[in-house]
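One chain given next:
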Amino acid sequence: MKQIDISKPVLVTGANGYVASWLVQKLLDEGHTVHAAVRNPDNKEKVGHLIQAAEKAKGNIKFFKTDLLEEGAYQEAMQGCELVYHTASPFVTDVKDPQRDLVDPAVKGTANVLETANQVSSVKRIVVTSSVVATYTDASDLANTPKGMIDEEVWNTTASLDYQPYSLSKTLAEKKAWEIANAQSQWDLVTINPAFVMGPAQNAKATTSESITILKQMGDGTFKMGAPKMGVGVIDVRDLAVAHYKAGYTPEAKGRYITSAHNTNFLEMGLTLQDKFGAQYPLPKKALPKWLLMIVGPFTNKLLTRRFIKNNVNIEWKADNSKIVNELGMSFRPLKETMEDSFQVLVDNKIV
């Protein structure tokens, strides 16, 4: 159990990311001093929204230029911090070299941050943003779990460099984090394992998150003929920020936390937008048949392989979120609110 001094600065890596931006906002609103580690503090397009957030909040922000793969790059930013949030990690699925573009940055970046903490005596707790994909690769994997759903005890054993390398990168990075944590006693580790993150982007034009891509496809007619009933879990980015905050400042927080609000699928997600946006946008209204997806999927998106479709479409996705609800007192906003607020940002920014 680690009691974190709220008067001490807090380090957030990848501070201008989609998830981290809301965490930084929460920390600032609560009056904390945030050490924001970013690649380029001078790029106003990427960090301007954080500067504006700090101007309106009780807390303060200080930027540090860092590189995930450069050893010791976080040393200065970590000084005086008792709490470190490591959120920086690539979330891209279309890569040329999975080892170089996904696995290495995720694993080496995590090791770099955590090993730096071993040299900075003020650090008491590190909260790492992992993912539910560190517990499974395909929805079909859930059938082989003890409860028929994912929980904190389950690890991903099916991802590889050739199949779902993003899932592999998150699994190996989290395992690395636990390995480093278990080899020392100065700080404790908590991991947050979010499901598919939706919700309004603070900096929509500069956000590269996969969730923006899916939303765009819902509005641009890609799913006009129907959306696949592809099982996923969803968490609102704003609720995810609260989950991170509680994981940092709740002394009893420990281990992994599956952070998923809704067991759902792409069709159900699209249908929640009908009331508000259905008249103006070609949103999905029905399920795309699996057999049709098997034929056209591989041509529309190279990630939609027949193996992927077979293992994820029309298969129910379920997660047990009772640990985070019971231990951290989390509650979640409705799926409809999350989806409408997300889509509205794309409309406002003329992205759809």
Summary: The radius of gyration is 20 Å. Strands lie at 10-13, 33-38, 60-65, 83-86, 125-129, 188-194, 196-198, 231-236, 255-259, 262-265. The longest helix spans residues 98-117.
